[in-house]
Design goal:
Structural class: alpha/beta
Distance between the termini: 45 Å
Strand order of the largest sheet: 1-2-3-4-5-6-7
Number of strands: 14
Number of domains: 2
CATH topology of the largest domain: Metallo-beta-lactamase, Chain A
Radius of gyration: 20 Å
Low-confidence stretches: none
Largest sheet: 7 strands, mixed
Order of helices and strands: EEEEHEHHEHHHHHEEEEEHEHHHEE
CATH architecture of the largest domain: 4-Layer Sandwich
CATH superfamily of the largest domain: Ribonuclease Z/Hydroxyacylglutathione hydrolase-like
Shape: globular
Strand content: 15-25%
Helix content: 25-40%
Mean pLDDT: 94
């Protein structure tokens, strides 16, 4: 359950029952006067038990424990308030923190208000309401804004004992997603920006008009850092630079696929285009996708369509409140 990865830096595996991610990598850094816990897991008993057992094994005292969430998703932030000491801090990138607090301050928002792009892109309202009821992002997150929440900006430094963690703003996976870099040890906590045996979900965000473009730009930016040990939010680590190249190539293929579908099937909405794309999931066909996976797939499809549209390769026509997509020319390509 607990492994030491570097002197004073430990990984605690936090189970994510019923989730295809399987496990969260929670990291614990032992400091001189304060300790730091990076990411916590969903707000559910199994996650809480696994994380607490790991912290007990490490002899972690709650009174000296700060918590750092790499981004707002509830598998990373859901228990932050439960594991931070009473007089300690809960750190998160400013953009994600503000967005999360906005959600938490109005938990009764309707699905259409919280996810305004989805009805416009053809996502059926009954499925959107079902997703809203069952999505862990809604049901297993922090219950409210906590006074210990503390924003971080790009370049901010967190000092934990001998380790200085530099905040690196890498929007894309979420609008305020962050990585954290220990420069003198060449260690990078990549969160969900770079995962090594699964591909991070890049979806649409109302506050980020080109989330995929931001993600790709920040992948290239991440390549400029010297990294010998990459510590991802899920699964195993690997070669940092080759993985960045693989992720860039993956989205190049996805962009080509989306554009080819629009050329072959003009006048389809994003929900229909997503159903024609290839996904690695155990489902017989598009209709049998679990609703949460369908929601992720459509969000990722929209992000790829936004990328193309902002570069003039596709356009949409809106009819009865739904967008239908067309290539700007038969030969449009990436």
């Amino acid at each position: 359950m607990v492994e030491e990865l570097y002197p004073g830096i430990y990984r605690i595996g936090v189970v994510l029952p019923g989730n295809p991610l399987r496990e969260l990598n929670s990291y614990f850094i032992k400091g001189s006067s304060r300790d730091l816990l990076i990411d916590t897991g969903f707000r559910r008993l199994a996650c809480r038990g696994a994380l607490q057992a790991g912290l007990d094994e490490l002899g972690s005292a709650p009174a000296r424990r700060d918590v750092l969430a790499t981004h707002l998703h509830s598998d990373h932030s859901g228990m932050a308030d439960l594991f931070a000491g009473p007089d300690c801090r809960i750190y998160m990138g400013r953009t994600d923190l503000e967005r999360m607090c906005s959600f938490l301050s109005d938990p009764d928002q309707t699905p259409a208000h919280r996810h305004p792009r989805y009805p416009v892109e053809g996502f059926p309202m009954d499925l959107l309401e079902e997703m809203h009821r069952t999505n862990p992002a809604m049901t297993e997150s922090m219950p409210g804004a906590d006074p210990r929440l503390t924003p971080l900006d790009d370049g901010d430094i967190l000092q934990v004992g001998d380790y200085a963690l530099e905040t690196i703003f890498v929007s894309g996976h979420t609008p305020g997603n962050c990585m954290f870099y220990i420069r003198d040890r060449k260690i990078m906590f990549t969160g969900d920006h770079i995962l090594f045996d699964i591909t991070p979900n890049i979806t649409c965000w109302d506050s980020c008009p080109d989330s995929l473009g931001s993600y790709l730009d920040n992948l290239r930016r991440a390549r400029s850092y010297e990294v010998e040990l990459a510590l991802p939010g899920h699964r195993q680590t690997g070669d940092y630079y080759s993985r960045i190249d693989t992720l860039l190539a993956h989205h190049e293929k996805r962009l080509s696929e989306a554009l080819s579908i629009i050329r072959e099937y003009p006048g389809r909405c994003a929900y229909e285009i997503a159903g024609l794309m290839k996904w690695k999931i155990r489902a017989r066909d598009w209709d049998s996708f679990p609703v949460i996976q369908k929601w992720f797939a459509v969000g990722e499809c929209i992000a790829h369509l936004d990328y193309h549209r902002r570069r003039g390769r596709i356009r949409f026509e809106e009819r009865d409140g739904v967008r239908y997509y067309y290539a700007t020319s038969p030969g449009a390509s990436i």
